[in-house]
């Protein structure tokens, strides 16, 4: 089983990289959600529609949503 190094580096299993098309030198994005880290290969234009599976609530502005997220985070960290 791979381990995290003292520099917090990880080695991705070669078989998994082949499946998702990650190659040496590729750029990636990592995201944290629900206690899990997801690694996604970054490719030109990949941000377009990457969150399209989420339902948008048009009654709330992006600013309101951000503020509510910040407030929830503060409440849970107390």
How is this structure best described in words?
The chain is of the alpha+beta class. Helix content is 28%, strand content 15%. It is built from two helices and two strands, in the order H-E-E-H. It has a two-stranded antiparallel sheet with strand order 1-2. Strand 1 (28-33) and strand 2 (36-41) form a beta hairpin. The model has no long low-confidence stretch (mean pLDDT 84).
Output the keywords.
15% strand; two-stranded antiparallel sheet
How would you summarize this macromolecular structure in one to three sentences?
28% of the residues lie in helices and 15% in strands. It is α+β, with helices and mostly antiparallel strands. The protein has a domain of 44 residues: Pemi-like Protein 1, Chain: D.
SSE layout and pairings?
Blueprint: H1 14-20, E1 28-33, E2 36-41, H2 62-76
Antiparallel strand pairs: 1-2
Helix % is: 25-40%
The strand count comes to 2
| SSE ordering | HEEH
Distance between the termini: 35 Å
Give the strand line-up of the largest sheet: 1-2
| Basic shape | flat
Mean pLDDT: 84
By DSSP (H or I, 4+ residues per run), the number of helices equals 2
Main beta-sheet strand count, sense and barrel state:
2 strands, antiparallel
Strand content: 15-25%
According to CATH, what is the topology of the domain at 1-44?
Answer: Pemi-like Protein 1, Chain: D
Unreliable spans are none
